[in-house]
Recover the amino acids of this structure.
């Protein structure tokens, strides 16, 4: 019955995302083939970055680096180990036109033929980044990182970043536990043209990365009618001709969740208007609709 009521609004819609995250089998194969640390797994790193961004969004696309990127506002590239020249050129152009590229550790090491690049990491993106990786260290024990009014830990992997341009901002630094890394930059960012590129040179804890994700998307990504997304709640936004639909799922088995709204929406299940917030019962689904200006 509920699907019958919502069906007409779902017809002709498709997922709509302002953020994309690269998932590449070439990168997974080459990183996992030479881990340098028994716990360094491409899939685990990808999940870490995906969760940090997805938990704050109504939609995120997982795409191959060869896909067209023009429509996205933020692109996340965990371990972009293999850099294809054409793809790197497209990313550089996209950044200068206003996109924000967030790159993870072990990026820019090899070309599309699995040959080592002759430039320091992040390889073909080094000039755009205005910083390079001077050295890298598999970590036996976690070390502290701090910055952006936060403190956390880096585990498994740490890279010593070195700015080559004066307009590079240092986001995080390593703590004193690792002599060679003490005080060295762990994450850096640079505004280029109308856009920005950020390099995260370590495997950070989830809370630290989530705060960086919030900062990376601020002022660029709009969750449209959804103001906040509580834990255990998944929101999927779909766009259709003249309207958009929000599918809100509460995955918690026992507790209700309240989702705050920034715009008035219509509940497609009961037909009522929803002004400020919607309460979702345990393991329940709410489907909302918003009319778009023509």
């Amino acid at each position: 019955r509920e699907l019958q009521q919502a069906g007409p609004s779902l017809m002709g819609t498709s997922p709509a995302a302002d953020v994309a995250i690269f998932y590449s089998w070439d990168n997974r194969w080459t990183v996992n083939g030479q881990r340098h640390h028994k716990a360094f797994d491409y899939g685990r790193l990808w999940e870490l970055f995906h969760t940090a961004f997805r938990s704050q969004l109504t939609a995120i696309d997982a795409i191959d680096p060869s896909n067209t990127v023009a429509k996205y506002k933020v692109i996340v590239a965990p371990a972009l180990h293999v850099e294809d020249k054409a793809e790197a050129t497209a990313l550089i152009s996209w950044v200068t036109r206003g996109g924000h590229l967030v790159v993870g550790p072990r990026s820019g090491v090899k070309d599309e033929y699995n040959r080592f690049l002759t430039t320091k990491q992040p390889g073909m993106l080094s000039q755009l980044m205005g910083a390079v990786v001077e050295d890298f260290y598999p970590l036996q024990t976690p070390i502290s990182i701090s910055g952006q009014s936060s403190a956390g830990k880096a585990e498994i992997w740490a890279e010593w970043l070195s700015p080559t341009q004066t307009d590079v901002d240092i986001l995080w630094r390593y703590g004193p536990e690792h002599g060679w890394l003490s005080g060295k930059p762990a994450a850096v960012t640079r505004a280029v043209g109308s856009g920005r590129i950020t390099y995260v040179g370590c495997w950070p804890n989830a809370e630290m990365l989530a705060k960086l994700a919030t900062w990376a998307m601020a002022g660029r990504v709009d969750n449209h009618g959804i103001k906040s997304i509580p834990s255990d709640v998944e929101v999927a936004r779909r766009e259709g001709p003249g309207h958009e639909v929000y599918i809100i799922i509460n995955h918690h088995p026992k507790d209700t969740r309240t989702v705050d709204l920034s715009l008035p929406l219509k509940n497609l299940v009961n037909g009522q208007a929803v002004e400020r917030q919607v309460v979702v019962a345990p393991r329940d689904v709410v489907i909302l609709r918003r009319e778009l200006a023509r």
The mean pLDDT is 94.
